[in-house]
UniProtKB/TrEMBL annotation:
Any one GO molecular function term: hydrolase activity
Chain ranges for the short sequence motif GXGXXG as given in the UniProt record: 15-20
Ranges of residues in domain PNPLA: 11-169
Keywords for this protein: Hydrolase, Lipid degradation, Lipid metabolism
Family matches, as CDD domains: Pat_PNPLA6_PNPLA7_NTE1_like
Ranges spanned by the short sequence motif GXSXG, renumbered to the chain: 42-46
Chain location of the short sequence motif DGA/G per the record: 156-158
PANTHER family in the cross-refs: NEUROPATHY TARGET ESTERASE SWS, NEUROPATHY TARGET ESTERASE/SWISS CHEESE D.MELANOGASTER
Active site residues of this protein: S44, D156
The keyword Lipid metabolism belongs to this UniProt entry's keyword annotation: yes
GO biological process: lipid catabolic process
Signal peptide start and end residues: none
Protein name: Patatin-like phospholipase family protein
């Protein structure tokens, strides 16, 4: 424990929609054990949680952010832009939590990934304006419209990189990962419709692409119970948080008992 607390710690938070509330539970468990990350990287919802953590927001403020931020608001719906919801309409909500709108104003070093739709490339952001990269990283198509940054359109970071280990892997002595895009064996009945088939294959592709990076972490949290929670199911916020906390608390106790 003393060694872990004295080492520089890096933290990677995956994408995964509402399941990302489990990241907040993980952060609470780490905090209770006196473990703090100095550098953090996130994709999609993981980027939002990472930003709140880097900003020094307590756990209750993080949960409040997600509970009070509407996923679907009538006057946010657009027919003039690609995507069902105009992602830009969330800017003022984010500004309330990040008033300085700057990576440099954060308490911890933060890296977020978004997908450049025009170039077909992932791009990392860690300097300058904060809010637009956050909005872009979490803009899950086709629900949320892409975000324009420097005359290019950006969307969800998880499209190309759902577990962004790359920008911080050589900057910390101990790497912790929280992956909420979990995969476990399912029954044949759970792949009985076209939608279920599409969801399963997409989840498998995302996990396969990121599996090697996930296992490069010194400590990884993956609560399999999260698979029961819908990606856009706001009713699952509290449940995902509790699942994440319980899983992390158990795993930390087991891990630290071996030290």
């Amino acid at each position: 424990m003393k060694a872990l607390q004295s080492e520089s710690v890096g933290l990677v938070l995956s994408g995964g929609g509402v399941r990302g509330m489990a990241h907040i539970g993980v952060l609470r468990a780490l905090e209770q054990h006196g473990i703090s990350a100095q550098i953090v990287s996130g994709s999609s919802v993981g980027a939002l949680v990472a930003a709140l953590y880097a900003n020094g927001n307590p756990v209750q403020d993080m949960l409040k952010f997600f509970k009070e931020t509407p996923l679907f608001k009538y006057n946010f719906i657009t027919i003039l832009k690609p995507g069902l919801v105009d992602t830009e309409r969330y800017f003022d909500i984010f500004k309330g939590y990040f008033p300085e709108n700057s990576f440099e104003a954060l308490e911890r070093q933060l890296h977020v990934v978004a997908t450049n739709l025009q170039k077909g490339e992932e791009e990392f952001f860690s300097q300058g304006e904060l809010i637009h990269p956050l909005l872009a990283s979490a803009a899950l198509p086709p629900v949320f419209g892409p975000v324009e940054i420097n005359n290019c359109l950006y969307a969800d970071g998880g499209i190309m990189n759902n577990f962004p280990l790359e920008p911080i892997k050589d900057k910390a002595d101990f790497m912790i990962g929280s992956n909420v895009s979990v995969i476990k064996q399912v029954e044949k009945k759970n792949i009985s419709s076209s939608l279920q088939l599409a969801n399963r294959t997409t989840a498998l592709m995302i996990y396969a692409i990121n599996r090697q990076k996930i296992h490069q972490c010194d400590l990884i949290f993956e609560a399999m119970e999260l698979e029961k929670i819908g990606v856009l199911d706001k009713k699952g916020i509290e449940k995902a948080y509790v699942i994440g906390y319980d899983h992390a608390a158990r795993k930390l106790e087991k891990y630290l008992s071996k030290e």
